[in-house]
Amino acid sequence: MIIRRKSKQISIGNIKIGGDAPISVQSMCNTDTRNVAKTLDQISELASAGCEIVRLAVLNKDAASAIKDIVAKSPVPLVADIHFDYRLALTCIENGIHALRINPGNIGRREHTIKVVEAAKSHNIPIRIGINGGSLEKEFAVLDLPLHEKMVKSALRHIEILEDLNFYDTKISLKSSDVLTTIEAYKLMAEKVDYPLHIGVTEAGTLKSGLIKSSVGIGSLLSQGIGDTIRVSLTENPVEEVHAGYGILKSLGLREKGINFISCPTCGRTQIDLIGLAKQVEEKFKNLNIPITIAVMGCPVNGPGEARHADFGIAGAIGEGYIFKKGEIIARVPEADLINSLENIIMKTYSEVK
């Protein structure tokens, strides 16, 4: 059992972050925020996949102005991602944004920081301090220290700025494209503050390489009880980030949203297109929001027994397959009808339970 780090609890819209709240899954739109309709379409798509918080890039005043219409119709809380220009932060706050991602030490004169912090306070808007190992401020980048220590020093400087203004509604991220640097940075920060931590490996890569790096980095931290929100950063449709995020959480027993999918790695006993079948089953049920385990196994000899812990499953044979439930075979079905038959059995069972 994983014992989570005790962190301060904050709220982003109606989502509780930290404390005893569930670890939330976050993603980021890759649309032009000025395009309200397209951005809302992607937010809805992410929300349908289970995304709980969505971040938006706010590059200029037109994007900040668009926030008002986007917030009004968004099904989930939104975070404005802002760099350097404090005026964009103020506009986003006025337009109803639920949280800011802005580093207080990088927005110019102290009076600019004070304006943002005071506006955030009055609207109960949390601020996420986001440190990226590849873009550290020069004063920290030149230090003769390991990168993760430089990142933590940078984060602590930004935290100090906020605390000096009596602002404590803060979340922190310390991301690097290097997995071990990311892990060490979060571990060190977790020892120094009790603010909630948003974890992830930045610039992780495309679907395959990004999933590997993110699973190692995020999974390692979560297994040590570190992390209150996560984002799996992928060069891919952001919906895939959401599915991956829940996959990581489910593998550690930290969330139960949606199915847990398992399949065997194939062997010489396999007499069915197991790879194709497994992909089809995973795709078919990926949005099924029932906390059950579905297995696809290569043969009826070992399959049902090895996957007896699965709620439902398929075991392949020659031109057909067996559908099993908790290790017991309940139907023999032609290969072409396997997926539809499995779906019918699952939905009938679930409707009876309800």
Structure report:
- The chain is α/β, with parallel strands linked by helices and 354 residues long.
- It has two domains: 10-251, Dihydropteroate synthase-like (TIM Barrel); 260-353, Sulfite Reductase Hemoprotein, domain 1.
- Helix content is 42%, strand content 19%.
- The chain is built from twelve helices and 15 strands.
- The strands form three sheets. The protein has an eight-stranded parallel beta sheet with strand order 8-7-6-5-4-3-10-9. A five-stranded mixed beta sheet has the order 11-12-13-14-15.
- β9, α8 (207-223) and β10 (229-230) form a beta-alpha-beta unit.
- It is elongated and about 75 Å long.
- The two termini are 29 Å apart.
Question: How are the SSEs placed, and which strands pair?
Answer:
Elements: E1 10-12, E2 15-17, E3 24-28, H1 36-48, E4 53-57, H2 61-73, E5 78-81, H3 86-94, E6 99-101, H4 110-122, E7 127-132, H5 138-141, H6 147-164, E8 170-175, H7 179-192, E9 198-199, H8 207-223, E10 229-230, H9 238-251, E11 260-263, H10 274-285, E12 293-297, H11 303-306, E13 312-316, E14 320-325, E15 328-334, H12 338-353
Parallel strand pairs: 3-4, 3-10, 4-5, 5-6, 6-7, 7-8, 9-10, 11-12, 12-13
Antiparallel strand pairs: 1-2, 13-14, 14-15
Helix pairs in contact: 1-2, 2-3, 3-4, 6-7, 7-8, 8-9
Key features of this structure:
Sulfite Reductase Hemoprotein, domain 1; TIM Barrel; 8-stranded parallel beta sheet; 354 residues; 19% strand; alpha/beta; 5-stranded mixed beta sheet
Task: Write a brief caption for the model.
By secondary structure, the chain is of the alpha/beta class.
